């Protein structure tokens, strides 16, 4: 682990006891701790991550109750650990005086990721992260499926961030939010005078994403006419603006997402089968939150940290009983609903979030 972290640009120090760790902290040599036993964490404000063989909610709750910024089960997913470290210590730069967040003698520079980590250690979410790591470096088109609020956009952004197109645009279009008569103009652009309100030429999402990634959310809601044009764009790597006969070459990796069963939509005549096969070279199914209840303590801790940072207040403590209550709920709105609930609890609770707050406000 030391070798890997130092390769990534971090300065590490291994100690054999909490007493040694406490001395290192006193000397100002430590920005964060990585421990495998929450009881060995020295008293103080130094953030720490727990690596544990225990996979129960109780053990995770106990760690977060002690103040852990993250809880990762063994065998350790190094990408997950690195994401947690970067979220905690931030950017690595030569100007940083912090020993952990300091550039090593290597020329490699580690920077904080701009994409939120995909939090959780359940088998289902570990599988999703594994697929992202395998698929992202390729140019394959990906279809992301899952219920509303499960985090499909986060998966798409992670695929882009880990791809060779990471420095190019990531352009999103919500196909369900655009009227059917405007979707073609939104995707492919239009020429001046192409229709009544087209007062000037406009580039569509395909052109805006040239060289990068186009994320087509709720792709199952596109009209059949728009589907035919998208199919042509994928087959020929060319598009034409509405009102123009001129073809424009585009280099775009398309990632699509839907909460619908597209095979059922094909049977109903609402979705083109040939487009489905073009989009679904790889299919990533994002599980609903009710299928990964064991991840809720980690998600709660993650959202509390993020939301309190947005509000510019210290992270609000949450009692273990409150976390247990949240973990028992069904969460029909999935991750989005959980985050909204945590924000509500941060606003409405007192100096800590209690089980009573859950009963009153959830």
Question: What structural keywords apply?
Answer:
alpha/beta, three-stranded parallel beta sheet, single chain, 362 residues
Could you describe the 3D structure shown?
With 362 residues, this protein is α/β, with parallel strands linked by helices. Helices cover 39% and strands 11% of the residues. The chain has helices spanning 2-7, 18-26, 57-65, 78-89, 123-135, 152-161, 183-188, 205-208, 224-236, 262-267, 273-279, 296-310, 320-327, 334-348, 355-361; strands at 33-35, 48-52, 70-73, 142-145, 170-174, 213-217, 238-239, 248-249, 253-258, 282-285. The strands form 3 sheets. It has a 5-stranded parallel sheet with strand order 5-6-9-4-10. A 3-stranded parallel sheet has the order 1-2-3, with helices on both faces. Strand 7 (238-239) and strand 8 (248-249) form a beta hairpin. Helix 3 packs parallel to helix 12 (296-310) and helix 12 (296-310) packs across helix 14. The chain is elongated, with a radius of gyration of 23 Å.
Brief sketch in words of this structure:
With 362 residues, the chain is an alpha/beta fold.
Structural class: alpha/beta
Sheet of most strands: 5 strands, parallel
Q: Say what oligomer this is.
A: single chain
Largest sheet strand order: 5-6-9-4-10
Rounded radius of gyration (Å) = 23 Å
Mean pLDDT: 86
- N-to-C span: 41 Å
**Poorly predicted ranges:** 91-114
Could you give the topology of this structure?
Blueprint: H1 2-7, H2 18-26, E1 33-35, E2 48-52, H3 57-65, E3 70-73, H4 78-89, H5 123-135, E4 142-145, H6 152-161, E5 170-174, H7 183-188, H8 205-208, E6 213-217, H9 224-236, E7 238-239, E8 248-249, E9 253-258, H10 262-267, H11 273-279, E10 282-285, H12 296-310, H13 320-327, H14 334-348, H15 355-361
Helix pairs in contact: 3-12, 3-13, 12-14, 13-15
């Amino acid at each position: 682990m030391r070798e890997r972290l130092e390769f990534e640009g971090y300065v590490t120090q291994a100690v054999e006891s909490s007493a040694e760790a406490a001395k290192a902290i006193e000397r100002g040599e430590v920005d964060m701790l990585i421990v495998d036993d929450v009881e060995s964490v020295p008293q103080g404000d130094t953030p720490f991550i727990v690596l544990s063989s225990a996979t129960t909610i109780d053990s995770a709750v106990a760690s977060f109750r002690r103040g852990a910024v993250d809880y990762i089960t063994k065998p350790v997913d190094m990408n997950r650990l690195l994401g947690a470290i970067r979220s905690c210590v931030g950017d690595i730069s030569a100007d940083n005086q912090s020993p952990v967040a300091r550039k090593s003698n290597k020329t490699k520079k580690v920077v904080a990721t701009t994409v939120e980590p995909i939090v959780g250690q359940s088998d289902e979410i570990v599988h999703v992260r594994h697929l992202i790591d395998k698929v992202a470096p390729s140019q394959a088109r990906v279809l992301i499926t899952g219920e509303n609020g499960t985090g499909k956009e986060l998966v798409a952004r992670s695929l882009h961030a880990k791809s060779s197109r990471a420095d190019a645009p990531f352009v999103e279009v919500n196909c369900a939010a655009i009227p059917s008569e405007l979707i073609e103009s939104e995707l492919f652009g239009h020429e001046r005078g192409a229709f009544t309100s087209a007062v000037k030429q406009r580039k569509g999402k395909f052109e805006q994403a040239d060289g990068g990634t186009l994320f087509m959310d709720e792709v199952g809601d596109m009209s059949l006419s728009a589907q035919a044009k998208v199919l042509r764009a994928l087959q020929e790597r060319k598009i034409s603006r509405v009102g123009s006969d001129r073809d424009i070459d585009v280099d775009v990796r398309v990632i699509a997402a839907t909460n619908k069963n597209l095979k059922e939509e094909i049977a109903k005549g609402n979705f083109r089968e040939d487009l489905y096969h073009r989009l679904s070279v790889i299919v990533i199914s994002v599980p609903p939150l009710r299928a990964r209840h064991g991840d809720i303590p980690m998600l709660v801790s993650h959202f509390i940290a993020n939301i309190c940072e947005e509000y510019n207040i210290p992270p609000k403590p949450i009692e273990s009983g409150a976390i247990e209550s949240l973990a028992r709920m069904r969460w029909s709105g999935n991750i989005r609903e959980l985050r909204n609930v945590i924000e509500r609890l941060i606003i409405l609770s007192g100096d800590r979030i209690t089980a009573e707050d859950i009963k009153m406000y959830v």
